[in-house]
Design brief:
Blueprint (H helix, E strand, L loop, with lengths): L1 E5 L8 H12 L3 E7 L3 H6 L3 E5 L2 H6 L2 H6 L6 H33 L3 E4 L6 H8 L3 E5 L22 H29 L21 E3 L16 E3 L15 H8 L5 E3 L9 H15 L3 E4 L14 E4 L4 H4 L5 E4 L3 H10 L3 E3 L6 H10 L14 H13 L1 H15 L3 H12 L13
């Protein structure tokens, strides 16, 4: 099959889909990944075809003021205010993404489309082409359940009615952001007018299958999910197999006890220099060595003590097996990498799904209680570092969970589901976790 993967967002919204694409390619399929142009090199290096999408949304969120806007999602009214405030900025970008998604489809001539929700016209494009479509998510963020609220909203203990309502609220916000662009695209391409906008069903009400790329060992499948929603396991790339560390990093890792990794991906907040200073002071106070990842987010570092080394970007699959613990922002990808490595985490959530993953890590006893960025202090971070490096029960539980996660093959399970939806026989389907 020709398979088009449409995704958009930060590295955590792209890397798992590259892993999925590589698995599909190994299975004999031709795969095109369409996403932000800043990831074109990574996609082509993975042996996949690339189709263009603009970089506008990510460029917008690179600015400290717009990152800061998203740092607190505990207040529903603030969520609404901030979402509406961003619409004027992102509207033209979203319209362009709709057109670029269609251009990617025309270029790749797919037999099936697999899409991230930010590629919101994917169901319409699939309808236009007369091909199957499936949503692929690395978070349990859109399929309603009474068991827990949507991860974008506060975890208020109001019962199942609130939990289910929270998904309707988030879907309403998504609709406010993108529905008009989807309607316009449908009209321009002579498709029937949809009764309402939904990423979970086609214009005639048919349910869109949703494939989740995380483990049921971390988030169990809710009993009230529809049969069209499946959990397959994590999608990860083996990018660490051929990695060659710098001589400086090799020497640092060899000269003492394993360090603690600290990195926040593309997240740094409004004051990255202050964040770096707090991290350095906390590591020194806890008496542990550290690897501080500057990464895409651009953590600001002036000077470092000998007990801490700075790195740019090192594959998590290589580095996390060589550290004692992981301090991170709670992005889905970094959380998955830390859990699979069997290392205890400290999650410092900024916004979005990150508080959800921080709570899951703590509930599984695979890490300390999360520390929201706005509550982060040197003392709190130091205490948490001491906890994850000395609490033997936590260390053992994290390692035991990691061993079980490493036995799963989420990519193979997802491929079996995709091939089944496309009508391709595949005996591996029986191993798909549902």
């Amino acid at each position: 099959m020709n398979i088009l993967i449409l995704t958009y967002g930060t590295r955590g919204d792209v890397q798992p889909y590259i892993a999925l694409g590589q698995g599909l390619k190994r299975g004999g399929h031709c795969v095109t990944v369409s996403t932000s142009s800043r990831f074109s090199g990574a996609i082509e290096a993975a042996g996949l075809h690339y189709a263009y999408m603009n970089d506008g949304m990510l460029t917008l969120l690179d600015t400290p003021e717009d990152q800061g806007v998203l740092e607190d999602t505990n207040n529903i009214f603030q969520v609404v205010k901030r979402t509406l405030g961003l619409l004027k900025k992102v509207g033209p970008i979203q319209r362009a993404l709709a057109d670029e998604s269609w251009e990617a489809a025309q270029q790749s001539q797919p037999d099936m489309i697999v899409f991230h929700p930010k590629a919101f016209t994917a169901p319409d494009i699939a309808e236009k082409l007369g091909i199957p479509v499936a949503m692929a998510l690395v978070v349990p963020g859109l399929v309603p359940t009474a068991e827990y609220p949507n991860m974008m909203l506060p975890r208020l203990k109001l019962g199942g009615w609130y939990n289910k309502l929270s998904y309707s609220f988030v879907n309403l916000l998504i609709g406010l952001s993108v529905a008009k662009h989807a309607r316009t695209w449908r009209q321009e391409n002579n498709l029937p007018k949809a009764k309402s906008f939904s990423l979970l069903q086609t214009h005639d009400g048919t349910a869109i299958p949703v494939i989740h790329g995380f483990s049921k060992l971390v988030v169990s499948r809710p009993d009230d999910w529809p049969r069209t929603a499946s959990i397959c396991g994590y999608w990860y790339t083996e990018d660490g197999e051929d990695y060659e560390p710098t001589p400086e990093l090799s020497a640092f890792l060899a000269e003492g006890l394993p360090p603690v990794y600290v990195g926040f991906g593309s997240m740094t907040g409004r004051d990255p220099e202050r964040l770096a200073s707090m991290v350095i002071e906390a590591l020194q106070g806890a008496g542990v060595r550290g690897v501080l990842a500057t990464g895409w987010g651009g953590i600001k570092i002036k000077t470092l003590p000998q007990s801490i080394i700075a790195v740019d970007q090192v594959p998590h699959s290589w580095l996390f097996s060589r550290v004692r613990g992981v301090v991170h922002h709670g992005g889905a990808g970094t959380t998955a990498a830390a859990l699979r490595a069997g290392k205890p985490s400290i999650v410092i959530p900024f916004f979005g799904d990150q508080p959800f993953w921080g709570d899951r890590v703590h509930t599984l006893n695979a890490g300390s209680a999360p520390i929201p960025l706005k509550r982060l202090t040197v003392d709190r971070l130091q205490a948490a570092i001491e906890e994850i490096t000395t609490d033997q029960n936590m260390i053992d539980d994290a390692e035991a969970l990691g061993m079980r996660l490493r036995e799963e093959d989420g990519v193979e399970n997802a491929i079996a589901t995709i091939e089944s939806l496309a009508g391709v026989p595949n005996q591996a389907l029986q191993r798909t976790s549902r």
